[in-house]
Amino acid sequence: MGDVLKVSLDVSAVPEKPAGAGRYIVELARRLNARSDIDLVVLVRKGDTERWVGWLGETQVLAAVPSARPLRLVFERLFLGRAIKKVGADVHHGPHYTMPSVKGIPVVVTIPDTTFFDFPEFHERAKVVFFRRAIKRAAEKATRLIALSDMTARQLTQRVRVEVPVDVVHLGVDLARFAEETPNDLSLREAQGITAQSRTIVFVSTLEPRKGIVELLAAFDQLAASDPHLQLILVGQRGWGEGVEGHLARVVHESQVRLLGYVDDATLAAVIRGAAVVAYPSVAEGFGLPAIEALAASTTLVTTQGSVMEELVDGVAILSEARDVAKLHDALAQALAESPQERAVRHERGRAVAGRFTWDACVENHVATYRLAVAREGRSVR
Q1: pLDDT tens per residue across span 173-226
Q2: Hey, what CATH class is 175-354 in?
Q3: Cα-flanking dihedrals φ and ψ of residue 303, to 5°?
Q4: What CATH number does the domain located at 5-172+359-376 have?
Q5: CA angle, 33 then 38 then 43, to 5°
Q6: CB-based burial, 111-142: b 16+ in 10 Å, e otherwise
Q7: Considering the entire predicted model, what is its pTM?
Q8: Domain limits of the chain?
Q9: Which of 141, 325, 337, 377 has the most CB within a 10 Å radius?
Q10: How far is the C-alpha of 293 from the C-alpha of 296, rounded, in Å?
């Protein structure tokens, strides 16, 4: 295993109901904490210690960060370095674009995506300004960067001046949780209003324009006109931007659309496993974890041409152009019309692709980056 490395991990950006980047940080923290070669301390928001103590243990949690987001961002930049020094970290990891000011300790920063540069219209203006600056600063001053895909790494070097090494580290998927049908699946789906007769198109992500939700509602409405058993299942929390409510109000077949909101892990897996199609028409992502989860669950995936999802799923998905209702309709119709034999072949290939992405490999690669960062600074560890 090598020497024990003391890692401080900033988890203050993880919301109460983790999704997307939040899930990445939670999985990383829990799995780092289980390793004998890592001594982990997580830096959490004040008032957010209970859940982290439950996951990691009391000695691994330091409530160092203000709860309010504006104060949290200022605190991280100006004062978080004191907490990092206080815990005696060998290396600090900022997993959400930003880095603290801390001297003498190597800092690793994850850049989840480059959408603040590529699609500013999909973010609050204040966030665009702040995170563009944060990414530029990390690319110049961090010890190493982590990008969650090769595409993100390429885009990063095209958007900003990168003066530090960039390591590509893919996220993982819990293969067993998504692949294995359970005796409770039917009841979990029925509890969400999904009957055995339903054919479902499932969307899993934040409900906001960048994710393609507006186009998905329009494409589904056309498909539902000829299929009363077709349901659109929306799993996820409301996001920023033009709300989904106004678009839902214009859906003719609104009774066939179900908004589940945030669901627990068991329900999520059961809903995806029971889907005829998982639709993930996001305009842009840094990785696109729901796409890999769909493959792991042996479900047909429709996603976006030219995206990181297309790059990662290696020809298994049915593709549609971003923000194109007609193309998305045709892709969904193709997926729904596949024969059982075609679906079986696609699903077998999908499971093989999903098997390339594990949380164990993800965490192992993070640890390798931490050790490279320490070595670059010429530090010694215990």
Answers
A1: 999 999 988 999 999 999 999 988 899 999 999 998 999 999 999 999 999 999
A2: alpha beta
A3: -145, -170
A4: 3.40.50.2000
A5: 60
A6: bbbbbbbeeeebbeeeebebbbebbebbbeeb
A7: 0.93
A8: 5-172+359-376, 175-354
A9: 325
A10: 5
